[in-house]
Amino acid sequence: MYAVTAATGQLGRLVVAELLESGVPAGRIVAAVRDPAKAADLAAKGVEVREADYDRPETLRTAFEGVRRVLLISSSAVGVRVPQHQAAIDAAKAAGVELLAYTSILHADTTPAQLAEEHKATEAAIGGSGLPAAILRNGWYTENHLMALKPVLEHGAMVGAAGEGRFSSATRADYAAAAAKVLTADDQAGKVYELAGDDGYTYAEFAAELSRRAGKEIAYRDLSEADYKEVLVSAGLPEGFAAILADADEAARGGALHDSSRTLSRLIGRPTTPMPQTVEAAVKAAG
């Protein structure tokens, strides 16, 4: 049995789809989710849906019963993720799983990004647990740059604080394919994968691609970390989360989100999705 936590999330659903496409029978996949009602479509496909709330350890223990391999998708609750992940690690150990795979962040052990702190702590907890584990250090999602696409297109400008720093991003589908590969492959215990897109780009190059696809000029305005944080706060983001995102851009300015190893494309057996392709699809969807 394979369990995927956060299986109704944006990444989790794609991992389940990849497992099904790879030939894993639906009945051997556990969709471990906080709200089973949101997984009705997965249940309809024959996937076993089990309640698994990071904040309720007893549900995790039940969710992992009889499971051989678990994909622990990192929680989205920035700031409280370490105890949530610890609960999942403890449940996996109690279930005697033979492999725990965890979605971390690119270069978690060396990056200066604040966003990595909880990932570092989780990796340490996994190491201390004695569980056979594989670490998937995911780079930036290309989709992250498109979350505010509509206002960017309306105002003809995008802002950030990464300067000439390069983003080696890939799509969620690319990272999901990697997770499914690792979850189903042999001899994965002890492996650490630095996963990133094949080709890097700057914010200015991203804005230029947006301009081409939208048929209008989209300028990139580079800000200081502090000023970018204020822009994010004014857009409605909580101050703490805005600070973390602005810090991530500052880390990217220094190269923290760039990786040229092409480990991801080798793992999934195909090139990663080119940034222009993702931008084109998003602009079309935005109308």
UniProtKB/TrEMBL annotation:
CDD domains: TMR_SDR_a (cd05269). Coiled coil: none annotated. InterPro entries: NAD(P)-bd_dom (IPR016040), NAD(P)-bd_dom_sf (IPR036291), NmrA-type_oxidoreductase (IPR052718). Residues 7-185 form the NAD(P)-binding domain. This is SDR family oxidoreductase. The lineage of its organism: Bacteria, Pseudomonadati, Pseudomonadota, Alphaproteobacteria, Hyphomicrobiales.
